[in-house]
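Notes to self after the Tuesday call (sharing in case useful).
The group wants a holo model before anyone commits to mutagenesis around the pocket. I volunteered. Ligand is succinic acid. Logging inputs and output together so the record is complete.
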Amino acid sequence: MTGCMTVRGFQIYSEKLDAETQQAMLEDLRQVIRQAPMFSPQTPFGKPMSVRMTSAGRVGWVSDRNGYRYAHRHPDGGPWPTIPETVLTVWRDLVSTDRDPDCCLINFYGEQARMGMHQDRDETDFSWPVLSLSLGDEGLFRIGNQTRGGKTESIWLRSGSVVVMGGPARLTYHGIDKIRFKSSSLLPKGGRINVTCRVVG
Ligand code: SIN
Ligand code: MN
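Result:
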């Protein structure tokens, strides 16, 4: 495990999760995906997002013509699975033992997927940090400012990297410009998984 560095208030732990932990988490996430299959969301403007996603937890994050929001059910009508213990262990280690997250969003990035610059602001409670875990191929993470635009800084997130966005950084713009396809052997067919845990409020 390497140390933690702070970039614009984002605490970045490069390779926080060892190979065994990554593999165990991947097995848990596969179990979640079997119960709540990945879907391809659309933005509120009707544009398909390039990532595929699903969630675990009390609520899941969804997006379609009706907007970005948290929903109590998967788009297919089924319940969201519970958040895996392997994920909760990292939350309790780095964020809090006082309460668990409400939502664990799982994003899958294929070779061409990216995530535009955005704030995480669909929650009603911004007092809790957002926890982000990366598995599989490296992703180029861009960190901006608390308002759109301005200078940015980029960092490659690797398999096992963990980011905590809290305090003043809770509403900082961020995104993923690209992935380095097949840079990791964790996912045999390539791709990147990002797991984001949030208290929704
Ligand atoms: C996100 O902010 O929605 C995803 C970030 C990531 O994939 O690392
Ligand atoms: Mn985000």
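Two things stood out.
The chain has a mean pLDDT of 97.
The CA atoms of residues 56 and 83 lie 5 Å apart.
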